[in-house]
Automatic annotation (TrEMBL):
GO molecular function terms attached to this record: hydrolase activity; metal ion binding
Alphabetical UniProt keywords: Hydrolase, Metal-binding, Zinc
One of the Pfam families matching this protein, by short name: Lactamase_B
Cofactor: Zn(2+)
Metallo-beta-lactamase domain segment(s): 12-194
SUPFAM superfamilies with a match to the protein in the record: Metallo-hydrolase/oxidoreductase
Tree of life domain: Bacteria
Entry protein name: MBL fold metallo-hydrolase
InterPro entries: MBL_Glyoxalase_II, Metallo-B-lactamas, RibonucZ/Hydroxyglut_hydro
CDD domains named in the record: metallo-hydrolase-like_MBL-fold
Organismal lineage: Bacteria, Pseudomonadati, Bacteroidota, Cytophagia, Cytophagales
Length: 211
């Protein structure tokens, strides 16, 4: 499996395209917020002859969903989220203007992701892990063969997701990290929703929130 990362919008959010040798791909957390960013994502997909077959959100805060409608409409794919984050998604039109974001177009989910389920595309299978705390319906995607984790805003390099937003809970987040992420092998590479990659082993040893 190959992973392409794009950093989009004023929140410097990481959007991921995952693909394999079949050229099928999934788009995770499209944060593209204007035509230039839309074009950058689309150009990569076109240049690599990829076929978008899934559209996934780790969670539904505004910076992770701005490109949902663009991807859904352009590639005729339905949005998939965890059902417990539907209220998070539905709240965006109310608060988007506070962040100076106008013209947001809502894309509602076509189906829901469940803990213990799988996301399959091409020859690739991702495990769905429910990891709330930053958002009530936050999930992460684990590729066991490559030891890679698309972690959204649960765990960052020597930091963790914020818990002061509606639906956030610090104790729940710490529990999610310890019981869902830290049980994975130390060599697992963590691809977060913001900032650079890290590893499970590094965060066990150096993350100040988890000592």
């Amino acid at each position: 499996m190959k992973i392409a990362r794009f950093t989009f919008n004023p929140f410097a959010e990481n959007t991921y395209v995952l693909y394999d040798d079949t050229n099928e791909c999934v788009v995770i957390d499209p944060g593209c917020s204007d035509k230039k960013e839309n074009d950058k994502l689309q150009q990569f997909i076109t240049n690599n002859n990829l076929k978008v077959v899934r559209l996934l959100n780790t969670h539904c805060h505004i910076d992770h969903v701005l490109g949902n409608k663009f991807v859904a409409d352009t590639y005729n794919v339905g949005l998939e989220i965890h059902e417990k984050d539907l209220d998070t998604l539905r709240a965006i039109p109310v608060y988007a203007p506070v962040y100076g974001i106008t013209g947001y177009e809502e894309q509602l989910p076509a189906s829901y992701l469940e803990e213990g389920g799988q996301v399959k595309f091409g020859n690739t299978t991702l495990e769905i892990i429910f990891a709330p705390g930053h958002a009530p319906g936050h999930v992460v995607f684990y590729h066991k063969e490559d030891k890679t984790l698309i972690a959204g805003d649960v765990l960052f390099q020597e930091s963790i997701g914020r818990t002061d937003l509606p639906g956030g809970d610090y104790d729940t987040l710490i529990s999610s990290i310890r019981t869902k992420l830290f049980v994975l092998p130390d060599e697992v590479t963590v691809y977060p929703g913001h900032g650079p990659e890290t590893t499970i082993g590094h965060e066990k040893k150096y993350n100040p929130f988890l000592q």
